[in-house]
Write a structure and sequence with these properties.
It contains 8 helices and 21 strands. The protein is about 20% helix and about 30% strand. A 4-stranded antiparallel β-sheet has the order 2-9-6-7. The protein folds into 2 domains: about 160 residues, DNA methylase specificity domains (Adenine-n6-DNA-methyltransferase TaqI, Chain A, domain 2), CATH 3.90.220.20; about 160 residues, Adenine-n6-DNA-methyltransferase TaqI, Chain A, domain 2 (Alpha-Beta Complex). It starts with 8 loop residues before the first strand and ends in a 7-residue tail after the last helix.
Length: about 350
Amino acid sequence: MNLNIENWKEFKIKDIFRLEPTKGIDSTELLEGNDINYIGAKHEDNGLMMCCQLDGFESWVSKGNCIVFIQLGAGSAGYANYIPDDFIGMNGKTLCGYIDGIMNPQIGLFLETILCKERPKYSFGRSWTGDRLRETIIKLPADSQGNPDWQFMEDYIKSINNKPISTKNKGGQLSPILGQTNWKEYKLGQLFCDIYKAEAHVKNDIDNFEHGNSDRLEFITRTDTNNGCDCFVNKNDVNGIEKGNAIIIGDTTSTIYYQANNFVAGDHIVVCRADWINKYTALFLKTILEKERYRYSYGRAFKMDLIKSTIVKLPTKNNEPDWQYMENYIKSLPYGDRI
């Protein structure tokens, strides 16, 4: 199905949704568990902050099958997430939007995508609250009576669904087991043969686009989403292209990613290279490094000297990092065969 927006119509959020505040009070009271999701003021991970115990918090539960509007959040104000199941959300930061008798996962995903296009208008200085949210105007497909064409939205999302990702690896049958090997401490400066600052580019100085084409290169910044990819640039328009197969660290944000393909970098990007790096070993080490992330922030940036001196524990064989073990472990995980 093709999207032809010429016949779309403007609608106010207040005329589409029944809006209700989320019911949670103080998220620090929640206890980890497996009963219900706590949905917070963030866009990544579909807003999931943690899974909680339900006992004692039943009055905090909001009904699912709704759009959760992020009113306040660190870099997330103005986003919206479709939440299919009942959840706990913190009152004052998120707001539920229901379309009674109509909402379903397909319509929810369509609306979420449209609503998130409004995000650049909102931030902590201009939060998505009150009448500002209710009066927000979005364009949607309209039927012959001028009402939102819910059936078109549902059919469109169904038309772009792909076959679900499958895996031959089964949970509970992982081998090798992490606890059955020796671990040893290593400094990162010992593990990498080269650690250096990438040539910095300014996004506004380069023609860029969201989705890319055959001549695209990923523009890697310190963003915590999309594996560091902020946008795409034309490889014929830039210098300082970095080769892929490297671990990338945003030094002021301690964001860490494995970059498989060639890329260009924004400011404050540190490139770490070694001959043992591949997508499996890099993902293993990335997970270990992210456990160290809490130590570093703008006040104590993860710059090159600190990177080199950081100590991590890794599986060891013959007093050397057992890279083959790490690779095999990642391959053995559910969906590890699809990496």
